[in-house]
Design goal:
Rossmann fold; 457 residues; alpha/beta
Length: 457
């Protein structure tokens, strides 16, 4: 068994190196491959460590899982990655809960420590499963993206949590009483739903990161149930990295985790700022020909990618426009907000896919001073992350969130398909600023037409 532990340590080192490489787009693919090799080693060693296994069933499971994974990897678009991550979180949590439940249902004496870890794994894993599928539904549109609340919601959640503690204690005292066990599963699933439905679409990236951490915690707890070192280490890595990412996301939105989970963003907006929401914003709509003349006179251009660019798959089109502008001696940079899109790093991955130089991608703190001497800021589908209301409107749900200072540019060209609001459900006052103009249409089509107009000047 010592030899097995050595291989588990090797697998754990590969997990850590994989996460390290995932920290930069240039090394992300290598990091993914390294982590996958670590997981392959862990799986093989685990199969060898446990005797009397039905390898036919294992091979069938591997084949089915590989087919499903390959299908989704090829079919799911980049804009749907957050939904897929949410589903993976849910499946990870449910897998941990199922393994822990199987151990509980085995005959024979189980130590108090093992029962305690089983309870933790089932609770966290089941909560992650139900919460993740609610998050998936909100992102996919099956469930309303607005906060769903009902009277005494937080009180009910507190009561459910207390009931879970009592059930856990009763299970430890009387492991043979299956009603307590079933109650633990059902109430954990209900709590996952009631904790997720009051969270608005603007906070879904944070929720996905948090649920990712939960799935890691559930896996680590299951590792203690099985006394499997690889599962304990990998689960702890996922749990810790998920919490760190959640913290980064909260800082990017200038909000506390408690505010995200219990704040129900969007409710205050509906009740206290409805008049402001309905206030008409006077916009100036330009054609691509007119926008092309503005770009032709510019020296410094900053592109601000958002979810609209992702939906239109316009990353290659924006690169072509940028390369043409650079060929004319103009400077082009890209401003990346930490919560642009629907998950962290969404914009970085999209732009890297189009072979845009990493040196041109600038984070919020780095790029904001550049807007003051920027001739044109091109906003492609971004909304809440460029809304100046975050600086001064205390009634706004995004108040205090760090934003990209695009309004300080000489000219702001905003591309949107419609005047629909962003995830936070509020109108963007930037659209009515004197230095802002709108160019409506699909981002990819608009950029392709803009490139033609630029070449004709």
């Amino acid at each position: 068994m010592n030899y097995f532990n050595i291989f588990y340590v090797i697998a754990s080192i590969l997990f850590i190196l994989g996460i390290k490489n995932l920290s930069h787009p240039k090394t992300a693919r290598r990091g993914n491959f390294i982590a996958a090799m670590g997981m392959l080693i862990a799986i093989i060693v685990t199969l060898l460590a446990y005797g009397q296994l039905d390898y036919k069933l294992i091979i069938i499971g591997i084949v089915i899982g590989s087919i499903i994974g390959t299908f989704f990897a090829l079919k799911v678009e980049m804009t749907q990655m957050p939904q897929m991550v949410a589903i993976f979180n849910g499946f990870g949590g449910s897998a941990s809960a199922l393994v822990a439940a199987a151990e509980f249902l085995k005959s024979g004496d189980i130590s108090t420590f093992t029962i305690s870890t089983i309870i933790i794994s089932i609770f966290v894993g089941t909560l992650t499963f139900s919460g993740s599928f609610i998050a998936f539904g909100k992102l996919q549109g099956f469930v309303s993206g607005q906060p769903i609340i009902f009277p005494a919601q937080q009180l009910i959640n507190a009561v459910l949590a207390i009931v879970l503690l009592v059930l856990g204690y009763l299970i430890i005292l009387s492991p043979i009483e299956m009603n307590y066990f079933y109650g633990l599963i059902i109430i954990s699933a209900v709590l996952g739903i009631t904790l997720t439905i009051p969270i608005g679409g603007a906070d879904m990236p944070v929720v996905i990161s948090l649920l990712n951490s939960y799935s890691g915690i559930a896996a680590a707890a299951t590792g203690f149930v099985l006394m499997n070192n690889a599962l304990i280490i990998s689960g702890a890595l996922v749990g810790a990295s998920g919490l760190i990412l959640t913290n980064i996301m909260c800082k990017g939105m200038n909000r506390s985790l408690a505010n995200v989970i219990f704040g129900a963003v969007g409710i205050e907006q509906e009740t206290t700022d409805s008049d402001s929401n309905q206030k008409q914003v006077l916009i100036k709509s330009y054609s691509t020909e007119e926008a092309a003349m503005i770009f032709d006179a510019a020296e410094k251009v900053i592109v601000v990618p958002g979810y609209g660019l992702a939906v239109a798959q316009a990353q290659h089109a924006v690169r072509e426009v940028a390369e043409f502008l650079e060929s004319k001696g103009k400077e082009v940079l890209y401003a990346i907000h930490p919560v642009a899109g629907r998950m962290p790093g969404h914009m970085n991955v999209l732009l890297a896919e189009a072979n845009i130089s990493y040196d041109q991608l600038k984070d919020l703190d780095e790029i904001n001073p550049d807007f003051e001497d920027c001739d044109v800021a091109l906003v492609l589908g971004a909304n809440d992350v460029v809304n100046p209301a975050a600086r001064h409107d205390t009634s706004s749900p995004i108040y205090g969130m760090p934003i990209l200072d695009v309004d300080k540019s000489r000219t702001v060209i905003i591309n949107k398909r419609t005047m629909n609001t962003g995830f936070a459900g509020i109108q963007n006052e930037l659209f009515g600023f004197d230095n802002s103009i709108m160019v409506f249409g699909d981002a990819k089509d608009m950029l392709q037409q803009l490139l033609k107009d630029l070449k004709e000047l």
